[in-house]
Amino acid sequence: MSVILVTGSYDHEIRFWEAWSGICSRTISRTGETGQVNRLAISPDKRLLAAAIHKKVNIYEIASPSNEPLVSFESHTMNVSAVAFHSEGKWLVTASEDGTIKIWDLRTSTLHRTYDNGAPVNDVIVHPNQGELISCDQAGSIKQWDLTDNICSHELTPAGDVPIRSVSLAVDGTCLVAGNNKGQCYVWKVNDENSNLPRFQAVTRFQAHSKYLTRCLLSPDARYLATCSADTSVKIWLIGPNYDFRLDRVLVGHQRWVWDCAFSADSAYLVTASSDHTARLWEMASGETVRQYKGHHKAAVCCALHDGAS
To answer: With bands split at pLDDT 50, 70 and 90, how would you rate the model's confidence at 283?
Structure first.
């Protein structure tokens, strides 16, 4: 499977899709099991799918036809809001509305560490250096967690107590973008820890949407920022050399809230998931929908795409 495209829904199902034909190739129906699918992540080697399902995280083997997970991680006490893999697939990080961030050892299937954030966590990402995590929360904070020293080493509160919904970091680690509940985006230049400059240097902020922002995501080539919103649109922002963000195009087609998005490895395509029950594949150059994925019976709230080298 050179292209792995997966969606999750409030209908409790996880669906794998053939990206170009739009055909659903596999459904993990999870019969007899409750809990909506909140977030999805594909391991760098394309072997595993992590699915945040209510309070737990199921790890599925992508090549296996079995609907049973390899392992379930159960320790969070409320909705799991984010999942992310370590670059070598050795560990997984999860974040939850219970106010904690947890690191799980995938080799031993055990809980390795718990960070107490103190407020419901909405998103967490792994820094490209694999030594730090960056999270955002319902209390309006963005935090950097140092995995070596086991501490929160930096904290940002760009808009007071307005909840931060989503964070994204450039592949080279030099740019951080955060989006909040009021549709605002904040941008920082990330300086080297060894420089005399501040770690996070605020460079700009802008109003991306007039309504609730659900996801912000920097493209792998760092040329674009995609923002998803309750206003049913996805906006594509072109990033200039001086961190200036210019609206490039608005992707229109979804009928209801857009919850999640994922870029192709070459940044030429974007997948989105919406409350209108569908996912869409967009061509970045034209801004057109080139494929729709129909099969979910309720809101499609998360998607994951891995079409790069494993």
So the answer is: very high
